[in-house]
Specification:
By secondary structure, the protein is an alpha/beta fold. The protein is 32% helix and 20% strand. The chain has eleven helices and nine strands. Strand 1 and strand 2 form a beta hairpin.
């Protein structure tokens, strides 16, 4: 893939005009208030995974409207009496939580790690998932991007982003977690959810979105033929005349808008040849990040010039481990 988006010098200054709905804060306040009527911890069962240096819990927590969401919680073995910082991680598009032994880096580094299953997803790559999406929707293109797309209250990502914020509530409610030292992280869809959770949660210590999806939707559909953004194009090509309603719905879940409401330090990453999450959409989120905070926190972005959507992979995790350790002490 050749370079196809704006030059890096322009990306670094790219600050697109926002299309936030006037009732965005009210929309999310009422959504989260409804979810928080339910006790967040539903079930927590220690499981024997065969890992002798890692303790694993199969967690169910109450997400959107109290609906059950599954997660793996891992921590260093024998550390139940310690109070540790935590990392909540979100998964890429149509992946699932799989096996607990597939995600050990954060627990091995001394954190409590909560890996959230994504409702209804988990059947395109990886080793499966365990959380259904209990809500229905109207006509949709294949995939998840257009489920309930013409009504923000019925839209799929309203449910998923509520789950993401409740995952932060859940990890803070677990014994042995320092609620003041919780970070959120994720790649692609997971990066977009990390930005959403950062905007919908108070007091996070750090945010780590890698090549984030769910950002600057209008720009994305105009500059890439890649999926999943092309799900929106497919839908609009059939449901002619619905674009205004569709993009209004998307404005409520745009991670650019929600990330403006965050106030934690952030380490982003972007790949300049990424045709799935175009660089300009990532820089839109980065340049607008924490724009409503009283004082902009420390932010940084790692640029992978020659990579596509795989981004930095192990290089980025190495950077995150060192960066977060310096923040949590």
């Amino acid at each position: 893939m050749a370079l196809f988006d704006l030059p890096l010098t322009e990306l670094e200054r790219y600050l697109p005009e926002l299309d936030e709905p006037a009732d965005l804060d009210e929309f999310w306040a009422s959504t989260l208030a409804q979810a928080r009527r339910h006790d967040v911890l539903v079930d927590a069962r220690p499981v024997d995974t065969g890992l002798r240096l890692i303790d694993t819990t199969d967690l169910t927590f109450a997400g959107f409207d109290g609906q059950p969401v599954r997660a793996w919680v891992t921590r260093p073995a024998g550390s139940s009496g310690d109070v540790l910082p935590a990392v909540v991680e979100y998964i890429g598009y149509n992946g699932g939580r799989g096996f607990a032994h597939e995600h050990l880096a954060w627990a091995a580094a001394g954190y409590v790690h909560l890996l959230m299953d994504t409702r209804g997803q988990g059947s395109l790559w990886g080793t499966g998932a365990h959380t259904p999406d209990e809500a229905g929707s109207g006509p949709a293109a294949p995939g998840f991007m257009t489920r309930g797309i013409e009504d923000p209250r019925r839209y799929y990502y309203r449910r998923v982003m509520t789950d993401a914020a409740r995952a932060v509530d859940a990890v803070r409610a677990l014994p042995g977690v320092d609620a003041a030292r919780v970070a959120v992280a994720g790649t692609s869809q997971g990066g977009g959810l990390a930005l959403a959770a950062a905007g919908l949660s108070d007091g996070l210590v750090a945010v780590m979105p890698d090549v984030p999806f769910l950002c600057h939707f209008r720009r994305a559909v105009d500059v890439t033929d890649g999926f999943p953004y092309q799900e929106l194009v497919q839908y609009l090509s059939v449901h002619r005349g619905t674009a205004e309603r569709v993009f209004r719905t998307l404005s409520y879940v745009d991670a650019v808008h929600l990330g403006r409401r965050a106030d934690a330090p952030a380490l982003f990453s972007v790949a300049l040849r990424d045709d799935i999450c175009p660089p300009s959409t990532v820089f839109a989120a980065y340049n607008h990040y924490a724009g409503l905070a009283p004082q902009r926190p420390e932010t940084a972005i790692e640029v992978y010039e020659f990579n596509r959507h795989e981004g930095g992979q192990g290089y980025q995790l190495d950077r995150q481990l060192r960066w977060l350790a310096a923040l949590v002490g």
